[in-house]
């Protein structure tokens, strides 16, 4: 049976941030915890958002979000939330800040180790109500603003996926103005995250035609606008469409994701390498597309159409060249991943929630082979 | 600013009706009012649905839904709802039963003439909470199961559009099994309603890329499967895809609709003619497409692609021929609409909620001209 759900409310446009006051009032939030990171504070975006907060709202601020959110950081932010009697969350930033915000919302009312609430441990059914979240993305990639999922590194070092409709932000405020000064490399890497979402979601065997259509539409936007946004960060049209594509990518992954994500979650759990999720997805996409090619029916035809490619174009090859044109790494080897890490990485993949919706379920041996290919 | 909202939860598949018990429990409904019509009772669908109701649920039944729902019928059903202490609504049927169910949900907590709550009178902002609705479509066309809107003929004879997120069914249960025995002509007419939704929604100037993508996907399904469903009602694939297309059409019209609908609402308000909404949309589509052709930018290119038409194909002409192949009337004249009715019809259009999102706002004179063309 096909089950279709969609996010509640998204505002997108230059200047959309002005609706924040209304959003707080509508959701009964007067003492928000703002979850963000030091980069957002340093670049002035935090001040921009703070500037539109109504006078009667007194926020607390947690700006210690790590580049991949951890259970430790969630607990720190939770303490602030509880000490200050907060009644809702504003998450400002990339996927990390938004995922951290969801982690805080979860832990306000759900005790025990965060892994207890992961998809693998049946969290989707067990997670109850949580305080309201308003999500304000400052990158165009993760789409976490329209999803009920988050990825958190546990105290045990595992990267776990937690998903619940109760963690879906009540509102996503997508203001492309906030992305105009995003550096080239981060624009490229987050944009490729959106592409990975659109492609992987479309390819899962889960039946959800509206999500599939949205994914193809998002993919077309990424192919049309990402290079423009990288070349000229102040190309406002390109920034608008990339912001839209990012949200569309996450709306699409209501269909689930696949092995690109199980592999990038595995690598991304390494706290020493501290690798960027979107960059990992970009680099892993060609390898996984080749692995899936014989298990997706006619879907590559639709992908090619959305990407304006010739009927016989090699999609994997095209993405490798696109990555290069965007200035992204060529392979995992360039990013510091070595052959000796592969057995542990491959084992990690087998327990990742995204593994189960890949068109073809890879064995641990096949994951190891894919890592081998992606390293060199 | 672009505001995007989507329905909450939709289950689609053969046998989906089995989740009704769960749906009631999840929404706290133990004494539902079932809103339906005599046709649904006579053909046995009502018994099918009743058969899956849990034993501890005691429904009341209103089976007097007219072919275009009226305020009078809403008040009758409301009396039953109140007399029996109901706590929610199950709407089973085509658009009429579902719209009537929404009217009942509205009037349980909103007093005064129903027209007070219309879009034109600012209802969208004024309408508060309403009891939960579970929608079970038995046709594939209206898409009312995933929309927060309904169209009701007031006691004054006006066809008013009422829209609120609070009237959105908590859950849509789309079971194509219920449509297998739908007669050919009703299959054709409701299917063309879905096509009109997909096309009109896509063409409005409202910015909502996910809705646009869903509309194009729905359109492709209608073009691919409607004739098959008409030719062989038990073509299960065709019935599944038409049911999906119908929901997609209504998800798309989160973007609004246009002059096809303002015109068909005007004609449909005539209680003596009692014309079918989907048939009217089918017949009006070519005329309105010709009117809009120069005001939609490059959008016809996308429509042709979704419809698998040649680059220079005349979409309006194609739809006229498709209507003929489906056995639908050729024009409004065949349906009993005469030239003397035109001034009143044209005036009605100017106050219809859909008028304002047509790509080009027609004048009352232009509406009269379009009616003239569509009659002959």
Which properties best describe this structure?
homodimer; 376 residues; Rossmann fold; Dehydroquinate synthase-like, alpha domain; six-stranded parallel beta sheet
Description of the molecule:
Two copies of one chain form a homodimer. Chain A has 376 residues and is an alpha/beta fold. Chain A has two domains: 169 residues, Rossmann fold (3-Layer(aba) Sandwich); 194 residues, Dehydroquinate synthase-like - alpha domain (Dehydroquinate synthase-like, alpha domain, Up-down Bundle). In chain A, the strands form two sheets. A six-stranded parallel sheet of chain A has the order 2-9-6-5-3-4, with helices on both faces. In chain A, a hairpin with a 5-residue loop joins strand 7 and strand 8. Chain A is globular and about 60 Å long. The first copy, chain A, starts with a strand and ends with a helix. The mean pLDDT of chain A is 95. The interface between A and B is medium-sized, with 28 and 28 residues.
Kindly summarize this structure in a few lines.
The structure is a homodimer of 376-residue chains. Chain A has 376 residues and is an alpha/beta fold.
Q: According to CATH, what is the class of the largest domain in chain A?
A: Mainly Alpha
Tell me, briefly, the overall form of chain A.
globular
Number of strands of chain A: 9
Major interchain interface with per-chain residue totals: A-B, 28 and 28 residues
Total of domains of chain A: 2
**Beta-strand content of chain A:** 5-15%
**pLDDT average of chain A, as an integer?**
95
Strand order of the largest sheet of chain A: 2-9-6-5-3-4
Question: What's the CATH topology name of the largest domain in chain A?
Answer: Dehydroquinate synthase-like, alpha domain
Structural class of chain A: alpha/beta
Please state the CA-atom Rg of chain A, rounded to the nearest Å.
19 Å
Low-confidence stretches of chain A: none
Oligomer: homodimer
CATH architectural arrangement of the largest domain in chain A: Up-down Bundle
Helix fraction of chain A by DSSP (H/I, runs of at least 4): 40-55%
Q: Helix tally of chain A? A: 15
Distance between the termini of chain A: 41 Å
Order of helices and strands of chain A: EEHEHHEHEHHEEEEHHHHHHHHH
């Amino acid at each position: 049976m096909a089950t279709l759900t969609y996010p509640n409310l998204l505002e997108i446009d230059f200047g959309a941030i002005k609706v924040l006051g209304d959003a707080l009032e509508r959701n009964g939030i007067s003492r928000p915890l703002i979850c963000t990171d030091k980069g957002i504070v340093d670049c002035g975006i935090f001040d921009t958002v703070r500037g539109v907060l109504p006078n009667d709202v007194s926020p607390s601020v947690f700006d210690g979000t790590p580049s991949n959110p951890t259970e430790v950081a969630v607990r720190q932010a939770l303490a602030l939330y509880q000490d200050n009697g907060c009644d809702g969350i504003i998450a400002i930033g990339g996927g990390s800040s938004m995922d951290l915000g969801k982690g805080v919302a979860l832990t306000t009312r759900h005790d025990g180790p965060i892994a207890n609430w992961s998809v693998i441990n049946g969290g989707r059914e067990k997670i109850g109500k949580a305080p309201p979240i308003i999500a304000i993305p400052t990158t165009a990639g993760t789409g976490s603003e329209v999803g009920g999922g988050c990825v958190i590194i546990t105290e045990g070092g595992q990267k776990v996926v937690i998903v619940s409709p109760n963690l879906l932000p009540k509102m996503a405020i997508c203001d492309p103005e906030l992305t105009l000064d995003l550096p080239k490399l981060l624009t490229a890497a987050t944009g490729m995250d959106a592409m990975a979402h659109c492609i992987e979601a479309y390819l899962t065997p889960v039946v959800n035609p509206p999500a599939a259509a949205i994914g193809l539409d998002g993919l077309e936007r990424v192919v049309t606008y990402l290079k423009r946004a990288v070349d000229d960060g102040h190309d406002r049209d390109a920034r608008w469409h990339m912001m839209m594509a990012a949200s569309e990518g996450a709306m699409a992954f209501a269909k689930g994701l696949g092995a690109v994500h199980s592999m990038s979650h595995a690598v991304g759990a390494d706290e020493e390498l501290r690798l960027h999720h979107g960059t990992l997805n970009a680099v892993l996409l060609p390898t996984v597309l080749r692995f899936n090619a014989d298990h997706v029916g006619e879907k590559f035809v639709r992908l090619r159409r959305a990407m304006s490619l010739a009927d016989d174009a090699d999609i994997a090859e095209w993405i490798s060249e696109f990555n290069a044109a965007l200035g992204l790494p060529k392979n995992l080897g360039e990013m510091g991943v070595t052959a000796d890490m592969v057995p542990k990485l491959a084992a990690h993949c087998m327990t990742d929630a995204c593994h189960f919706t890949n068109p073809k379920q890879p064995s641990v041996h096949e994951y190891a082979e894919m890592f081998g290919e992606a390293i060199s």
